[in-house]
Amino acid sequence: MPGGRSSTKNSGKLARQLLFWEALLHSKASSTAPMTQQPVQHHNTSDTAQESTMDHILQERSAVGRRLEGMDNAMASLTAETKSIRLDIAGFQSLVLGLEQRVSLVEAHVTSSRDRDQELLYLHSKMIDLEDRSRRDSVRFLGFPEAIEGKDMHLFLRETLPNSLP
Q1: Does the pTM exceed 0.70?
Q2: What's the mean per-residue pLDDT of the chain?
Q3: 118-139 burial by CB neighbour count: b if 16+ within 10 A, else e?
């Protein structure tokens, strides 16, 4: 029976191909994501193979969808965290600007204080000099009666001092 033999050969070949594809799809599914496995049914009809392949594709699609949802959640979390960091940075920038202004005011105050200190030192030295000059101009001679010099003090001192010194 040649007709029966070729039919059996084709059926066996189809069954081996189906087993190969199922094993290949199963190995891909187990390497990409864990999923619930359905029992593999070995049927010799092409409808069963198509249904099995379709089920497997749907399972893969579902697994990919779950992964994408997880990635979407992670991206949303990262986006929210990035916005939070940007707000923090903006707050820090305003604080730094405020601190820079305060430092500028302090520097200006220190500079003006230095200028005042230098002016005070100058005035102090000038005051000391004026006091010294005032003392030099205010010589007192003790032991002479008041108003003895008369109208010309220089003449009185020229005559009196050489006689009073030993």
Answers
A1: no
A2: 79
A3: eeeeeeeeeeeeeeeeeeeeee
